[in-house]
Amino acid sequence: MSLHSLHRLTASKALQLIRTDQITVEEYARSLLKHVESRDSQVQAWACLDPDLVLSQARALDRVPKGERGPLHGMAIGVKDTMYTKDMPTEHNSPLYKGSLIQVDASPVMTLRNSGALIFGKTTTTEFASTTVGPKTYNPHNQGRTPGGSSSGSAAAVADMQVPIALGTQTLGSIVRPGSFNGILGYKPTWGAISREGVRMYSINLDTVGFYARSIQDFQLLADVFRLQDDEIPKPFILQGATFALCKTEVWPEAGPGTVKAMERAAELLRAAGAEVVELELPEDFNGMQDLYLRVSQGDGRTAFLGEYTTAKEKMDNFLVGQVENVSNITRREQLEALDIIASLRPSIDRIASQYAAILTPSALDEAPEGIESTGSAAFNAMWTALHVPVVNIPGFSGSNGLPIGLSLVAPRYKDRYLLNVSEEVSKIFEEGGWKSEL
């Protein structure tokens, strides 16, 4: 492979070349930087990217003796700009934090850096990863469309092959929805499986750190580094004879034609591979999850942004001001009721999901909407985020404009490695039978 096309490699493949001394970390970094330079004006995925810093880190990694190299040695990773990085500003897309440099790494960044990763740059986000007002970033498949959010730059950078892996966070649908819009894999682990220390908080009850990549093998590497372990080591997954539950949820009336067709096509592909697909209607207890989610998130938002509100509320998005001022008039009693109901439903969804290979459900209403002013609806994601279950967006489908649409696989809590095994097999048949990226 030409040095100029190294940027197209998945993390796993690039790591193999670095480990076998076929390329240096600096050569790999230069290929990525060259591609960023050629595409930055069309995508604008970066809040901060310093080529000199990238190359300096790359050279330092090349000097590390072979016996002392970490499992991610030389792997370039984008970091959402709501996570502290000791050598780059963390601005949260807020004028209140312009140029702010906290000289410490967030826990996920620290873990990656200590595993040999090349912390490539900071990716764009909506303000405090908490609004649907889009940053400057464009969908790499169509400049007239949003990449989704709030992890806008992370998803766009991975989709455009500017980095093979990027960190995101999800409070509503900020990993899964952009994964769908950009035609890449998005992985939201079980809530609490990865530390949020040093990551800007919106909801203590919902915020989850996750990843984007272009292969499930890359997620497996990350799962190893973050020590994600099921209680029982999962066996290799076999599609033949497995049963998947197709779950439309109460949001189904909002699904666009692209998502409707994607669900139908996914069922066809799974059945053709020898799996069984059954329709799952959740018990009535799960009705009203959208309202329950909002009570929890808005209750948490009342306290999350009070510091900035008392500092300069005029510099904050109106949505965030409304959170602090509780314009929805949600009482603490209603917030507690929602917390308790959702908590009672988590063991229930674990029992239901454990009866199937995985639950198959929509990732987004349809393909990415037009314009970058809004990052689009995350209505299909609220329930799964609130239930704390692991979710993987699997690309492979497209809408009426030829833009990507993904679907989600869901498993019980702390069955992350099992879900990745299932996702690896499902992603193969979705890739073979569906949408192909032209990037």
Mean pLDDT: 97
The helix/strand series, from N terminus to C terminus, equals HHEHEHEHEHEEHEHEHHHHEHEEH
Computed CA radius of gyration, to the nearest angstrom: 21 Å
What is the annotated CATH architecture? Alpha-Beta Complex
Q: Cα distance, first to last residue? A: 17 Å
The low-confidence runs, each spanning 5 or more residues with pLDDT under 50, are: none
Please indicate the percent range of residues in DSSP E strands (runs of 2 or more).
Answer: 5-15%
Helix and strand content put the structural class at: alpha/beta
How many domain units?
Answer: 1
Region (Disordered): 131-155
InterPro entries: Amidase, Amidase_dom, AS_sf
Biased composition (Polar residues): 131-145
Protein name: Amidase domain-containing protein
List the helices and strands and how they pair.
Elements: H1 11-19, H2 25-43, E1 46-48, H3 51-62, E2 76-80, H4 107-114, E3 118-123, H5 152-159, E4 165-170, H6 176-182, E5 185-188, E6 208-213, H7 216-225, E7 243-246, H8 257-272, E8 276-279, H9 289-304, H10 306-312, H11 318-325, H12 332-353, E9 358-362, H13 382-386, E10 391-398, E11 404-410, H14 416-433
Parallel strand pairs: 2-3, 2-4, 7-8, 7-9
Antiparallel strand pairs: 1-3, 4-6, 5-6, 5-10, 9-11, 10-11
Helix pairs in contact: 2-3, 7-14, 9-11, 9-12
